[in-house]
Amino acid sequence: MFEFRFDSATKTRLLVKLQGMSPRFVEVVATKLRALMFQLQSKIVSEKLSGQVLHRRTGVLAGSVRTLPVTVAGNQISSGVASSSGPAFYGKIHEVGGSRPYQIFATKARALQFMQGPRTVYAQNIIHPPAKMRAFMRPSLIESAQEIRNELQAAIDEELKKK
């Protein structure tokens, strides 16, 4: 989340400049914010979910990454990028890691078979470790945060110069 805050003197000057151009100002900021969120979505899908953090197998998780619509409520203009809904629920587990270890029992055979290094191991049950955190959303936002701030500030500055 990004917030732009101004001291009271700057806020007063800004409000005076914004009178009469408020709808245009909101439209410019919303358009820029929408474009920046599409760039963030693209970064997540093309970098983080294409080998940098996770390797794409089916494309279900990458397909779940979407931009949220720009909303205007009072003096707030917001948007974002969401992921891991529907059949890609497992994206949340990758983002924050597994909760705790769990036990797996052999149910269709007398023993579980798996490789542990070069050896084949048989066991009636095992304790599976929690899933490792492999965040792909948060790091993308952190890496892009300064660029998003700069581009939004540039759009605001440019629009304020026009009046």
Topology overview:
Elements: H1 8-18, H2 22-52, H3 60-64, E1 66-73, E2 76-82, H4 90-96, E3 102-105, E4 112-116, E5 119-123, E6 125-128, H5 138-162
Antiparallel strand pairs: 1-2, 3-6, 4-5
Helix pairs in contact: 2-5
- Rg value: 23 Å
Question: Major sheet, described briefly?
Answer: 2 strands, antiparallel
**In what order do the strands lie side by side in the largest sheet?**
1-2
- Number of H- or I-type helical stretches: 5
Terminal CA distance reads 28 Å
Tell me, rounded to a whole number, the average pLDDT.
87
Strand content: 15-25%
What is the β-strand count?
A: 6
What count of structural domains?
Answer: 2
Please characterize this protein's 3D structure.
The protein is an alpha+beta fold and 163 residues long. It has 2 domains: 8-83 and 132-162, no CATH class; 98-131, no CATH class. It is 48% helix and 20% strand. It is built from 5 helices and 6 strands; from the N terminus they run H-H-H-E-E-H-E-E-E-E-H. The strands form 3 sheets. The chain has a two-stranded antiparallel sheet with strand order 1-2.
Tag the structure with descriptive keywords:
about 160 residues, alpha+beta, 2 domains, two-stranded antiparallel ribbon, 6 strands, about 20% strand
